[in-house]
């Protein structure tokens, strides 16, 4: 079975399509609620605040078949007339055509004056957006702003009278097993109610940097995207956004953007026309068990700083490459992917207390948080590092404990691995395919920059660091290695793997 995330708001043109749907959420309580006798009263109250969204845009295409009859064919004149009538030039030259493509989705009203929330992918690329209310009145909608990173968009209509609306709930209180109800516009049918439970929390489906989806088994299908997921108090705890399905239809695995993320994004779009997020200025990576062991951390948690942006908030606060961020603004960083969301949701300009792990002990620093700009990104320029074998470089040394061959960088190696003149460090020239280093992702052409938090400039310093770690009885050694994707820390096992 293949996994597919389908997009109900886009035209279906292939076997796999991207669909976004909703997840269920509920207000938590000390004890589980009993199953409701009926969802009818709640559905009747909430249906008027859920809308159908239709979009259209001009799409370029080409008319006519991609073939020609040969010169002299009895069908040549007929073929030419057909092409010209369909907007193509003589001799079958293809002229561009445009047609208006339409798509359907869902949304919900959050204020009586006509603010409507939906998914970004529902309205992405549209030049016309219209909203159909529960009483079948259709109004043109204006796009106030959108956020592709969380897949949230805010629209505005101008109603003649106050509209029914729904309130945000607290998705953080939603518990696995709570009942939830989704309302939306599946397949353009409008006003459809489905119910289920919250199946899981904190799902990462690789849709964006702030993934933290609620999973639900309430039926979600194409067209449900942008619709609300309600708890049993009738409050919105999620925006239906995506489904897991091999066919495009509901199989009981849907995902919703939690209100804890969506509400703040919507408020910022409403105030500024765009989301405003905190910025720390670090590139981070997962703290693996091997990395935790190599730095003396009892538990593998937090986010390891692989690189620090020059003159960014982290650099100004003294955060260094190799630090592990354990807490941010009083919140424990359970995993690497948790930190970007915590930072993004923190008030810009706030003086934030950060707890680090450095040199085998905890350290506290204070960071004045900056604002994330759209062009603020890592320098992820990749280097072309061909792995073809050539003559053995002078000074090449085998480090059996790591399953690596390393060498000092010389002109021959700069040319072979396409290195710049200012590249420093120790280059990996070969990796034993049966070694733990190969398993962790170390490749020929990678540059060893640090060993046990000490800069290394030649092979002898790498060998010295490895021996010192072995003499200290360590099972792993921490190394900072420049890979094709940028600098990254590796906790390398000091044992040759059995073949």
TrEMBL record:
Domain of life: Bacteria
GO molecular function: serine-type endopeptidase activity
Gene3D superfamilies membership: 2.30.42.10, 2.30.42.60, 2.40.10.120
UniProt subcellular location: Periplasm
Record protein name field: Probable periplasmic serine endoprotease DegP-like
Residue sites binding substrate per the record: 121, 151, 223-225
Active site, per annotation: 121 (charge relay system), 151 (charge relay system), 225 (charge relay system)
GO-annotated biological processes: proteolysis
SUPFAM superfamilies according to UniProt: PDZ domain-like, Trypsin-like serine proteases
Reaction catalysed by this enzyme: Acts on substrates that are at least partially unfolded. The cleavage site P1 residue is normally between a pair of hydrophobic residues, such as Val-|-Val
Organism: Thalassospira profundimaris
GO cellular component terms, A-Z: periplasmic space
Annotated stretches, region: Disordered: 373-396
Predominant cellular place of this UniProt entry's protein: periplasm
Position of the signal peptide: 1-27
Lineage: Bacteria, Pseudomonadati, Pseudomonadota, Alphaproteobacteria, Rhodospirillales
Enzyme Commission identifier(s): 3.4.21.107
Sequence ranges of Basic and acidic residues compositional bias: 373-387
CDD domains (UniProt xref): cpPDZ1_DegP-like (cd10839)
PDZ domain span: 269-360, 394-484
Keywords, alphabetical: Hydrolase, Periplasm, Protease, Repeat, Serine protease, Signal, Stress response
UniProt similarity note: Belongs to the peptidase S1C family.
Stored Pfam families: PDZ_2 (PF13180), Trypsin_2 (PF13365)
